[in-house]
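Hi! If you just cloned this repository, the fastest way to understand the data is to look at a raw example. We've pasted two of them here, unedited. The first protein comes first, obviously.
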Amino acid sequence: MFMGLLLIIVRNVLVCLVSSLPGLFVSRFLEQKGFVRYQVKTFYIGFLVFVCVLFSIMVPETHWSLYVIISLVVTILGIHRFELWYSIRLGRWWWLKDK
């Protein structure tokens, strides 16, 4: 019982970390193109892993593809949710126009 649960937790942590990499690359691309400002992403990645571990304990029969989708959405939209909205409304580099 315990080893099975531990295996599920470790698998989901690794799936979340690996599937958050494309989201981090997209975030870096958006930062370079001026759509969003640079933000530290450590908190969001840690929160993502925590939520996935908690969810895997509560519902252990969940398929790993759900964790991939959650990881991609959280790493792109969770980090830059408000800045993407401002960039759509105000244009690129909107935070530098005030100075």
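Ok, and the second one:
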Amino acid sequence: MIESYLEARAGCKTVNQLNVLHISLENQLAPLEVAALRHELDRRRLAPAGDADPSGAPNWSEQSEVWIARLVGRIALSGKPRPERFARRTIVPDVTMYSSGGATRDKTLAICFAGSAQRLMMPVPCFLQHLDASRFDVVVLRDAARRGFRAGIPGVGGNLTQVVEKIGENQRRSYGSVVSYGTSGGGVPALWAALQLKLEKGVSVGGNSPEDSRWTLWGDGGVAVPFRYYLERNQGRTELLLVHGADAPEDAEAARQMREAVPADLVAVSGRDGRPCKHNATLPLLEGGVLGRFLELALQPGSDLDELRRLAAAGDAAAQ
């Protein structure tokens, strides 16, 4: 990974190309890989300077140091002294598995649907660092077409139903618990997966409305039509949680409409330090140092809803 990064960095001709490279890594790396990359970049920074590149290619060392320091700083908001020991395995280009190994019967599998930015409202290693690798395996699905997974994922399935079936195949028998989690454009697919697979829990953060025009494949009822079908088969065994920023009226209305379509609990996250909490409802939780506890409860079936709401409202207390 380190050599691949250095080779790709050397091939960047502009700052924009370098930024694209860094964003791609933020959407894929595990916390251990970030730590290893930072160590290597620090080592190179402290090493004696060599001769300048005769080709005149840009030296991106300073930009790399700024980027890795910012990423490490966000990961450090977990308050943990060491990186969580997730190992990364690419299943297909847009599906990545993160696991520390061990018996899956003692773990929860979190099937995570990224938004259009190909991440979970934060860099993937930051999200992973706020979970316990001994208790969670995580599979992250990305939708390069940015169509809410309605067109499927190449190499997995041609539509959302096929993707969910393929990714969820046999998982409920292998893991102690399986849940789904999605942010922004991945919110509705996460709820879909929870209902289709009869999972223990599904969580949507800043997800779309069931009446969104992009989900009218089933007529005027939108995604509520297949959801009602799955609910009848499901017999109420799946818990659904809708999370949105307290200062994001469109997201709040989308959550309200989704709650009318399916039985779900609702949590509104407040901003911190006088700042509003808009579409990225996880940002105040991250900055407030409570994201780890929030995710633990949000992904746990039968969790304490009152404590979730207390954590979500912590920003109000910080601003007083």
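That's it. A detail worth noticing about the second one: The chain has two domains: 2-49+60-76, 87-319.
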